[in-house]
Specification:
About 30% of the residues lie in helices and about 15% in strands. With about 500 residues, the protein is α/β, with parallel strands linked by helices. The strands form four sheets. It has a ten-stranded mixed beta sheet with strand order 1-2-7-9-8-10-11-14-15-16, with helices on both faces. Strands 3-4 form a two-stranded antiparallel sheet. Helix 11 (about 340-355) crosses helix 12. Residues about 1-10 have low confidence and may be disordered.
């Protein structure tokens, strides 16, 4: 049921809080949808009388990836809105934060989703919705009887949140025609899927995809295999409907059966992990095609997109006891398993082994560091470059960036997270704060103008006939760098040449 015009303009009672950039108004725990377990959500369009307290965080297994900041519950489809303390004369652009957490964790009430500092600048309204995580949000059941639309439920939640923003953000001082979706890690994979979702058309005007994009896509056949394994683990193969009444403890105890811990296996072309399912062949699927194909088809040609990665992504996941291979031959075999022929795999290993030592003095040729650098490219930097090039080749606007090191520390996965939220961690050094300021500027400039401040990749239909990796990155296009001064364009260019011809979105 939709509200009448008088109800639509009423703003709930909120709270005034102090962000790192200044005082802001906050409305928390606003319900935007409701959902039964393993069912597509239904929109809730009635604004509450007050929104003073964060709503429940998504149900997720222990140990938490991060403190969710609120009690967890399956009834979690709420959002938080932050706005400058002073009401602007003209509506402000909107930044929508989609949190990461490996598709298994995260919450809008977490410190890793606190976008108050963006609103504290006075330049934007910021919004952080919850979406369902883990098997509750990304287990595919739509191919089974009685589960119509039960695929990519977490993605569908995010789309409903964007629809709520279109309907209601004007009441909070936001401009529904200028909505930039910012996602990091799993959040970036969710945001990166939006061009392939018909229901999302017109709900956003820009994308900022940090450490993610169009590559964590689970093929339909893999999703069905994972579902079958999950049902077997719970011993409900003959009665899939039993998932509706299973305890959360049982569901989460079975989740590792289909979501392995190794970062490489989680991010192959057929991920052994939860992710965006290519459900385009399902009658009730939410995707119309693979998200990368959507870029190539020009479905985001009118949407400016910023794709960024960090210089040392995989360093954040490297536990030598379980991550480091025994020798370089093992790394070469892993690359071959990705569909790379032997000569090219050997050339890749030789390249990564020849790179300089780390800031801590680890030799570039150690098997663990070679694997780290290889997976940094395979999982994050190669997909970012190819997505940007595909967007440009289709006539769209694409920007590339890379976050570098600060104070000699490696620039691991999520080191740009505070900057994306407009803030810095309390323990950050001056160099880290300066890097955060740069990243915050990218987000604010994308939200306000669709231009982060450097040239976009060259565009044109003439480029579409050429393979993306043949387009010379850094020649006629700039790559922005946050943190240290290094040749990020050269890194992207070398990488795309080394992985040329390898099937990877």
């Amino acid at each position: 049921m939709h509200e009448d015009a008088s109800t639509q303009t009423r703003v709930p009672e909120g709270a005034t809080i102090q962000a790192s950039t200044g005082p802001v108004r906050r409305w928390a725990g606003i319900r935007y949808a409701s959902a039964e377990r393993f069912e597509p959500a239904r929109a809730v369009d009635v604004l509450p009388k007050e929104a003073l307290t964060p709503g429940p965080a998504p149900a997720q297994p222990l140990p938490y990836y991060e403190d969710p900041g609120a009690p967890v519950s399956e009834d979690c489809l709420n959002l938080t809105v932050w706005a400058p303390l002073e009401t602007p004369e003209d509506p402000l652009p909107v930044v929508v934060w989609i949190y990461g957490g490996g598709f298994e964790h995260g919450a809008n009430s977490s410190a890793f989703s606190d976008a108050s500092a963006l609103a504290g600048t006075g330049r934007v309204i910021s919004v952080a919705p919850n979406y369902r995580t883990g098997v509750l949000g990304f287990l595919s059941l739509s191919h089974l009887g009685g589960y119509d639309g039960a695929s990519n439920l977490g993605l569908r939640d995010a789309v409903l949140a964007l629809r709520w923003i279109q309907c209601h953000i004007a009441a909070f001082g936001g401009d529904p025609s200028r909505v930039t979706v910012v996602g990091e890690s799993a959040g970036a994979f969710i945001a990166g899927a939006l061009p392939a979702v018909d229901e999302a058309s017109g709900l956003y005007s820009g994308l900022v995809l940090a450490s993610g994009g169009m590559s964590r896509v689970v093929p339909g056949w893999r999703a069905k295999e994972m579902t079958a394994a999950f049902l077997r683990e719970l011993d409900v193969e003959s009665d899939p409907q039993a998932l509706r009444t299973a305890t959360l403890d049982d569901l989460f105890s079975a989740q590792p059966t289909i979501a392995v811990s190794d970062i490489g296996q989680r991010n192959s072309t057929a991920p052994q992990a939860l992710g965006i399912v290519n459900d385009s062949a399902e009658p009730t699927g939410v995707l119309t095609m693979h998200p990368m194909r959507a870029l190539e088809a020009g479905r985001a040609a009118s949407t400016p997109i910023l794709l960024c990665s960090t210089r040392d992504e995989i360093s954040a996941f490297r536990n030598p006891e379980v991550f480091d291979p025994a020798d370089l031959e093992t790394v070469r075999g892993e690359i071959e398993d990705l569909g790379v022929e032997r000569t090219q795999a050997e050339a890749l290993v030789t390249h990564y082994a020849s790179l300089p030592e780390t800031p801590t003095g680890e030799a570039g040729s150690t098997p663990g560091l070679v694997r780290q650098r290889m997976l940094t490219d395979w999982i994050y930097r190669l997909p970012a470059a190819r997505a940007a090039l595909a967007q440009a080749a289709a006539g769209g606007t694409a920007y590339l960036a890379m976050t570098g090191r600060a104070d000699g520390a490696q620039a691991g996965h999520a080191c740009d997270g505070p900057g994306l939220l407009g803030a810095s961690w309390p323990q950050s050094t001056p160099a880290m704060r300066a890097r955060d300021d740069q990243v915050r500027g990218w987000v604010l400039d994308m939200a306000t103008s669709g231009d982060p401040g450097w040239p976009a990749l060259p565009t044109g239909e003439a480029l579409a006939a050429r393979r993306a990796e043949e387009l010379a990155l850094g020649q006629g296009a700039a790559v922005a760098v946050a943190g240290e001064d290094f040749d990020a364009a050269g890194d992207y260019r070398t990488m795309t040449e080394l992985w040329r011809g390898v099937d990877r979105p």
